[in-house]
Design a protein that fits this description.
- It is a single chain.
- With 256 residues, the protein is α/β, with parallel strands linked by helices.
- It has a single domain, classed as NAD(P)-binding Rossmann-like Domain (Rossmann fold).
- It has a seven-stranded parallel β-sheet with strand order 3-2-1-4-5-6-7, with helices on both faces.
- Helix 1 links the parallel strand 1 and strand 2.
- Helix 1 runs parallel beside helix 2 and helix 3 packs parallel to helix 4.
- Bound molecules: NADP nicotinamide-adenine-dinucleotide phosphate.
- The site of NADP nicotinamide-adenine-dinucleotide phosphate (NAP) has 30 residues, from helix 1 and helix 7.
Length: 256
């Protein structure tokens, strides 16, 4: 679907790339010719992802350990990434995110702040720090990561829902501000996807997913990677400030 020279001579930074959707997105961008910087906190897992990309694709990969709550660490990430990309970074995939389940009445202020800090503030910090490098590209592209929970809300996930809704609004605003710098910014809003964490919690497995099966509500990480790849590709040249939902078939009780 995507040719292996689509992103030739371009550099992509993917946060939250030590596993799950970030790993799948980094691999797909590398398969399409981008050199990739993978970032997260778990250095061993990140090194394994970078190694896998270098072994299995023709692209170069650099792993940088970073906590998106740490502004100084993000500045170091920008420096490492721009050096790696010979001065430019064309794509930022701000994917790092976290959640845990708790009703609002049992949610401490500290717990609320932790999730907002990682998801919303972390996305802001990364976009803010990479603004100059993205503006230096011919066409800079940003993809942020929301969730259908940011649209719908969910019991025991108010903190997560609020952070994801904020990411959608942040992305629309970035698109307006950065258009004059030739930077496109779009947001992905996945439904349930069989990443390792979801597989453990729900007893599902990505191996069982048939991408030719339309009637389902569990996605494969590669399906989110393909959509991210489209949004940073020239095929999406007239798309900015949008939130793209990938959730398969969403049924209400009356539809059954
Ligand atoms: P995951 O398996 O839990 O992976 C999350 C990634 O974010 C990991 O690489 C993790 O790495 C990184 N991360 C977490 N906290 C971080 C921090 N403070 N600093 C830097 N990196 C951090 O999650 P996933 O399922 O792949 O989800 C990826 C994104 O998609 C998240 O934003 C999530 O909210 C969103 N999403 C997922 C689904 C789904 O069904 N899977 C649906 C909708 C939206 P380290 O632990 O090594 O730091």
């Amino acid at each position: 679907m995507y040719q292996n020279d689509l992103f030739e001579d371009e550099t992509a930074v993917v946060t939250g790339a030590s596993r799950g959707l970030g790993r799948a997105i980094a691999r797909r961008l590398a398969e399409c010719g981008a050199d990739v910087v993978v970032a997260a906190r778990s250095s061993d897992a990140l090194a394994a992802v970078a190694d896998e990309i270098e072994t299995e694709t023709a692209s170069d990969a650099l792993d940088v350990t970073v906590d998106v709550r740490d502004t100084d660490a993000i500045e170091r990430l920008v420096q490492r990434a721009t050096e790696f990309g010979d001065g430019s970074v064309e794509m930022l995939i701000a994917n790092a995110g976290a959640n845990f389940h708790a009703p609002v009445t049992e949610l401490s202020e500290n717990a609320w702040r932790t999730i907002v800090d990682i998801n919303l503030d972390g996305t802001y910090r990364c976009c803010h720090a990479f603004a100059e490098a993205l503006a230096a590209a011919d066409v800079g592209r940003v993809v942020t990561m929301s969730s259908v929970i940011g649209r719908d809300g969910a019991a025991e996930s108010a903190h997560y829902a609020a952070s994801k809704a904020g990411i959608e609004a942040l992305t629309r605003s970035l698109a307006l501000e950065w258009a004059e710098d030739n930077v496109r910014a779009n947001c992905l809003r996945p439904g349930l996807v069989a990443t390792p964490g979801v597989e453990e919690n729900r007893g599902v497995t990505a191996d069982r997913i048939d991408r030719d099966d339309v009637d389902r509500s569990l996605g494969h990480p590669d399906e989110i990677a393909d959509l991210a790849c489209f949004l940073v590709s020239p095929g999406a040249s007239y798309v900015s400030g949008q939130t793209y939902t990938a959730e398969g078939i969403r049924r209400r009780p009356d539809d059954e």
